[in-house]
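Supplementary Methods S3. Input chains for the assembly prediction are listed below.
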Amino acid sequence: MLDVDRLEVAYGDAVAIRDVSLVVRERELVTVVGPNGAGKTTLINGLAGLLPTRSGTLRLDGIDLRALPPHHFCRHGIALVPEGRRLFGAMTVEENLEMGCYAAAPRAHRAASLERVYALFPMLRERRRHRAGSLSGGQQQMVAIGRALMARPRLLLLDEPSLGLAPAIADHVFEVVAAIHADGVAVLLVEQNVAQALAIAARAYVLEQGLIVAEGAAAELAQDARIREAYLGRQ
Amino acid sequence: MTRRRTAAALGFVAGGALLALLPALRLPAFYETFLYLVFFWVALATSWNLISGYAGYFSFGHAAFFGTGVYTTATLTSKYSVPFLATLPLAGLVAALIGAGIGVVVFRVRGVRGELFALLTLAITFVLATIVLNTPIDGGPGVFLAAVPVPPWLGSPHATLYLLSVVVALGSVAVAYGVQSSRWGTGLFAIHDDEDVGEVLGVPTYRYKILAFATSSFIAGVVGGIYALFVTYVTVPDVFSIGLAVDAIMMAALGGTRYWFGPALGAAIVSGLTQTLTGGQSAILNRVLIGAILIVVIVFLPDGVAGGLARWRRRRGEAAAPVAVTAVASPARQRPAVDTTLLRCADVRKAFRGLQALSGVTLDARAGEILGLIGPNGSGKSTLINVISGYYRADGGRITFDGREITTVEGHRIAGLGLSRTYQIPRSCRRLTVLDNVALSAMFGAPGLGREAARREARRWLAFAGLETKAAALPAQLNLHERKFLDLARALAAEPRLILLDEVLSGLTPAQMAGALALVRRIRDDGTTVVFVEHIMSAVIDLADRVVVLASGQVLAEGRPRDVMRDPTVIRAYLGRAYA
Amino acid sequence: MPSLNLLGQALLAGLFTGGLYALLGLGLSLTWGLLRLINLVNFALAFLGAYLTYQIATTLRLDPFVTLVIVVPAFFAFGVVLQLGFLRFGIHELTSLIVTFGLTVILESLIQWIWTADFRRLETPYARSTLKLGSLFVSVSGLMGFVAAAALALSTWAWLRWSYVGKAVRASAEDGAMAAAFGVDRRRVALLLSGLSAAYAAVAGLFIAMTHTLAPTQIYAWMGVVFAAVIIGRLGNALGLFTAAIAIAASEALTMAVTSPGWAPLVSFTLLIFVLLLRPEL
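Predicted structure tokens for the full assembly:
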């Protein structure tokens, strides 16, 4: 479904992602793990159209995404839950969710999608008219995920959803992601928290300093020494 | 260098003398009037540039100070019979006081930058115009000055006014040159490019801005005083006119706001151009042309004609030498490494709107060591650096540096105490050369050197960082690696006892990284303690003497790198529960 | 101390002037708050609109309101073209201030060339008719301007608050990249806002023509006050602008009635200084 080949993404002057290739198939939950500064956010932003890509190919179901302007990415079923949430803080929770289905196709199902999101996150329904910026970190994460779900995506991109959250809330987030995946949505999860990411993923890639240093089935990779080395250095 | 400068100064004086003697030639009045106008605009544009071009505080209110000067002279001569020449310095003084007064109030407010200052100065013109119009200063009908005596120099009162305009114009250009070559000027340029960084480096931004604004207003006031007697009849709408401000801005922008001669160049060009289009319909075409020039210049030539010239000259003499990090002997340094605690954080706390970023951090940095600060994303490393360097204020706990408590000391004073930092994304002043960027630190930081001495020091630090071939370049011409080293050189030029490095290795290729690591070791060997935040573990293990691990705003572990990396709690923090 | 009647009359005059300030400032507030562009040309455009209204209504003997049919779409198109220029050359913030000042100068010269510096006064039946409210005389054209300002401010606010496009505009202003990630075409949003801003200027021009004598130098006279209203009302806030405009104009009018007419400009400036010093975040 998502086919990335030898992608190069620069962030300003620095080439943060060089020669990255990965694949996400229909209904798969794939995770990309790696230490801080590995380039995970740059990678996801490149895949979502937020950053221009320098070279390589980026295809979704055969469509060349690199040729598209940023605001057309969501038309092909990609939705992003960015690092740090990036909600529209001055707007209400419900307005944030509505912005998720701004594009024509998902907008037709707005009411139904809204119901689904509120069912998934009941506490958002109570706070629907509150300013998004006034919510706690965990609640904001729910809004961010909900916003992406409103777009009825086929591929959900998540960038470090557990960042800055208390462990209990982070657990909840991972449960939610697993549940969304169970519903049939393909997921590309970028995470720093290796254990929990590998626990819910089918396949995984390890990113270190802009390059993929390991890939394979999540269960096998969990035992791989290369992950430890990527995070903690060669012993 | 000095010989060239003496020659230039002599030429300046000679040229000035020639121009001054023009009236003695008894040419038709047209030439005197034309030149008067040229000098009029040279002085106005150059004075405007002092606050707006140099410091970046765009003022639309130059007419207000010009008008103040006009009416000061008008009132003093017509109502109080003060001799004309005596009123000129007073005209400048009143204008300067108003400018300084506004600056004192407005520059204190942090939010007043850019657009806001522009609009405030726009409003000032209207306010002063209103006051003058409604009080006996003018009252409505304007002020007649034909009866005011002007001492005849070189034969006629007209020549006197012309001579005065020559003096003021040349004087303003000299002032502009003097400012640009001084510490004050370098500070103003820093304010223009990145006022926050300037403050952190120790530039007295508040004082410099007020001085620049006052000087600018003074000159405008004097020009106004002369103008009053030149036209002999002044009215409020004629004098407090936005059009005048716009013309001055446009001339300065056309010539190049970064250069002392830029506004003068622009004034000469535009005066020459508009001379060919005078009267009736052409006056309107004149205005259209002026508006069009302004637009074209701002869009295509943001640095003006002078800037274009400078760029052309630079391109011709550009050195394409690659930057190699060579081992150069560093500038002589002081303190030997003694095993004492240099920096201590005790139970430091910091929260942001509900998020507890630091929840009680306690750590030490010992003199002469390289301390690595690591931790997963969101652990609070950057916050800690920002709190230590004074960018944020801690909510609780104590920070002591070199025995002195710095918990509540503001950012711009910390540099002076011997603590420097670099930034994750290098922040240089884009209009200053690489050399001057580094010299800023030596000028306004702890060393507190004069400009020439600071530049010499800067050269040595550039050599230390391997950037000596790029001394005359602008930061935009450097690549990321070089800009990071520039940031580093600048931090070092303040001669810190402790330097905080914020992810100095990110974005570098492995080869560049090796050079950077060597440089950091040399910095420590010369007596500066290093605390660095880093993610690249191999580098941390290689470089650090000791490592502190932060997680969730607290210190999780500390010790030698290899020991810490094997600590189960650390592994768990990075990889999750399953791994420990 | 002037009579209550006089104060009341002054207050009314202030309200109507405030309406004009609001009309002039609406486009400016929107583009500055939501696009981070300072569009000074708005003022010159409003006066161009006023002159066009005058010309079309006088030459073709039309009701001035009818001229809107021609002027509004034309100005909208101008706004779009202007924004295209800004996008093409990457102009924003301070640069936009300078560029639009240049454009203002050019437009002002154009106006002066076509209509000369002579005063022009639009003769309409509205101009002379008044209503009586108790013992107060209410100028009809002034009242219409006030109502138009209130209506436009209210509808703009409502549009931004409740319509999907309005939400997209607000989202785009806060985090353009994220808005684009969910399908908002930032380019189109910018063009729309710029066109709207110019269209508002057209409406402002109509009412200026109906209530004032026109002269090219007038363009600059309103800038200070309107900017003050825009800033005090908070950028991008249509209702805030309206309220601030009314408040400023009313204070000016009362000041004029109590002291002397010449002191009015001080009011807005003083208010502005206070607001800036107390709450400097725009």
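The domain at 4-122+134-278 of chain C is CATH 1.10.3470 (ABC transporter involved in vitamin B12 uptake, BtuC). The longest strand of chain C covers residues 130-133.
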